[in-house]
Amino acid sequence: MKKKYFLGILLCYVVTGILMIGSTIRNNIGYSIGDTVLAEKEDSEKVKSEKEDSDVGQQPQKVFQKVDKSYLNDALFIGDSRTLGLMEYGGVSQASYFADSGMSVFNLEKTTVPVADYGKTDIRSLLKQKKFGKIYFMMGINEAGYPWKTLEKKYKETVAMIRDMQPDAQIFLCANLMMTEEKSGQSKAINNKVICKINAMIEKLASKNEMYYIDVNEIFTDKKGNLCETYSNDGVHVLGKYYRDWMDWICTKGVV
């Protein structure tokens, strides 16, 4: 009797021990798997982030070449008052221009402007009427006061619309011209820091969509990255005589 009682107690201890060891093993395995999954997820997100960062600034696999101005005969320039300056003073009359002072991605599709050979028209009608070889899109300065996510979303939607309507065109997304240091310091909403942020967004968008990003600031800014005072009277636009230099610079960014 005593022997059976002793064996029963011993059996209870053995079973309890086995259950405790099993629980410990399960817990340890669970933590190990959980840690591994978390580490793999973090590594995956890190790789994804690094890939996205590495994409920034990459152009399609073609090298810019210097071309003559006839290269722009089948080009469409879309933009604000700076693009108007190119139209009026750039010396390339064969290109088409859809530009207006105050133009932005928020009013682009609502605006009608006179376009040579087409009369007064809106952007969608113009893009339907003619197949362009190149499209130069420069906007952002007039959008600078909008909430960032709203601006970014609308800019991307506008570029996507242009791409959808002109799938065979080479699209050049143009950086916004910086302001002079004095002009930039006059506003917290529209200044060179904000313009830099907008330009970085444009560059990233171009690289992700096989478009070309070109930045004219390389010829007009000083060592600090501000528009040189000698090029501007108002701190925002270059003087009329410099738009030819701007157009000549565009002709160093040809893709043939």
List keywords for this structure.
single chain, 256 residues, alpha/beta, 5-stranded parallel sheet, two-stranded antiparallel ribbon, 8 helices, 7 strands, globular
Brief overview, please?
The chain has eight helices and seven strands, in the order αβαβββαβαβααβαα.
What report would you give on this structure?
The structure is a single chain. With 256 residues, the protein is an alpha/beta fold. The chain is built from eight helices and seven strands, in the order αβαβββαβαβααβαα. It has helices at residues 2-55, 81-89, 123-129, 148-165, 181-184, 192-208, 217-220, 243-250; strands spanning 75-79, 96-99, 112-115, 119-122, 134-138, 170-174, 212-214. Strands 2-1-5-6-7 form a five-stranded parallel sheet, sandwiched between helices. Strand 1, helix 2 and strand 2 (96-99) form a beta-alpha-beta unit. It is globular and about 45 Å long. It starts with a helix and ends in a 6-residue tail after the last helix. 27% of the residues are buried. Residues 21-42 and 44-57 have low confidence and may be disordered.
